Amino acid sequence: MTRQRLNFRDSEFEIDTYWLDPIGDLENEPNKPLAIICPGGAYKFITKREAQPIALKFASEGMHAIVFDYPLVGDEKSVYPLVLQELATLLNWIKGQSVEHKVDLDRVLLVGFSAGSHIVANFNSLMTDAEMCKKIFDDEIEVQPAANIIGYPVIDLTLGWPKEDWAVKISSDILYWQAQEHLNINSKPTFIWQTVTDKTVPVMNSLIYAQKMELLKIPYELHLFASGGHGSSLATYVTKEGNDENVNFANAAWWELCMNWLKVRGILPKD
């Protein structure tokens, strides 16, 4: 893993890169997919449970990974629209790394968990709309995500999370509150998973996002598991972190289901 600093105008942000080294004995090393990971943390912090363990899991599937250290509430600037501008900057930066690290620019994924899913969902809505994107980001986005993966996602800030005035602190502009409202025909296919018994982020977030994608005929796959709490990450002992509720053999199936979906989408090979 390598920590790197990038800039959007006068704003500096950091990323952790997990580049896969060439195997070395292949005459023609193939380009590999890349997953950009936005962990959760309620916009208060960035949880490590959804950072390196997820990045290494993607690496085990033959994919490069990057963990995006995005702006939080309490930083010097508002979270939105800066977080979308930084993510767009990161995507353009990847183009310059594609030759050295053999990145397949047609197989880039955005991956979000909880609050990180809110970033991914907003990008999939606002930044795929040409007119809206121009208002947020001056430059052309040269690398477009092929698909998204969101787990126990925050989609709509008015559905029960956050409470009190936290939504206003995330953004005073309601444009960024309800990601489902800005989905459009150019939005990307999305894999969605959550537990029905999530007591932190209501499951309705996943349902309304899938419903809007269905109405727009955007490909998606939705998995709702019968039990389990919020923030289980891989739902295995790897991300247990002292909390038994983070281990759930049934919910852990989301990873295999997701990898199968990526194969169906042509992002991972089927053999």
Automatic annotation (TrEMBL):
One Pfam family cited in the UniProt record for this chain: BD-FAE
Gene3D superfamilies linked to this entry: alpha/beta hydrolase (3.40.50.1820)
Record-annotated BD-FAE-like domain positions: 29-212
Source organism of this protein record: Companilactobacillus tucceti DSM 20183
Keyword Hydrolase belongs to the record: yes
InterPro entries xrefs: AB_hydrolase_fold, BD-FAE-like_dom, GDXG_lipolytic_enzyme
Protein name: Putative lipase esterase (Putative)
Tagged with keyword Hydrolase: yes
A GO molecular-function descriptor: hydrolase activity
Domain of life according to the entry: Bacteria
Keywords, ordered alphabetically: Hydrolase
